[in-house]
Write a structure and sequence with these properties.
There is one protein chain. With 127 residues, the chain is mostly helical. The chain has helices spanning 5-13, 28-37, 45-53, 56-59, 62-65, 68-78, 83-90, 94-108, 113-122, and strands spanning 18-19, 42-43. Strands 1-2 form a two-stranded parallel sheet. β1, α2 and β2 (42-43) form a beta-alpha-beta unit. The protein is elongated and about 50 Å long. The two termini are 15 Å apart.
């Protein structure tokens, strides 16, 4: 997985019991699997330190900034739907979706729907 604490925080908040980054020693993976199978939590010491000392991991976590509806819209953007399709899926007007997208853009400091769509696509695997 990614070695950014934001990704580790997200995975753990979603119920992951272990986290090994792609830059960790591959032999550690076996230890991680055994530890998790024993019902324990496995996080590399370097990542655990980053998570405990880096409160930005929670602040920057995309999911803590969005409401449930905004998460739903963000997920649909990441799946490739345009605003009209999202409006149909959610059962609201196109204008409501456009307004929600403006709010989401502001939360992330983005300037355009294209930037928002790109960000949603980047996070697609995390949704």
């Amino acid at each position: 997985m990614n070695d950014d604490p934001v990704f580790a925080s997200r995975a753990l908040n979603l119920g992951a019991r272990g986290y090994v980054t792609k830059n960790d020693n591959p032999y550690i993976l076996l230890e991680a699997i055994k530890t998790v199978m024993e019902g324990k939590l496995f996080i590399m010491p370097k990542m655990a330190e980053a998570l405990s000392s880096n409160s930005a991991a929670k602040k920057d976590d995309i999911w803590t900034q969005l409401t449930d509806r905004e998460r739903q819209i963000f997920k649909l953007l990441g799946a490739g739907q345009d605003l009209r399709e999202i409006a149909d899926t959610v059962g609201v007007s196109h204008k409501t979706i456009a307004n929600a997208c403006s709010i989401i853009k502001n939360k992330f400091g983005l300037r355009s729907i294209a930037e928002l769509t790109q960000k949603a696509f980047e996070y697609k695997g995390m949704i």
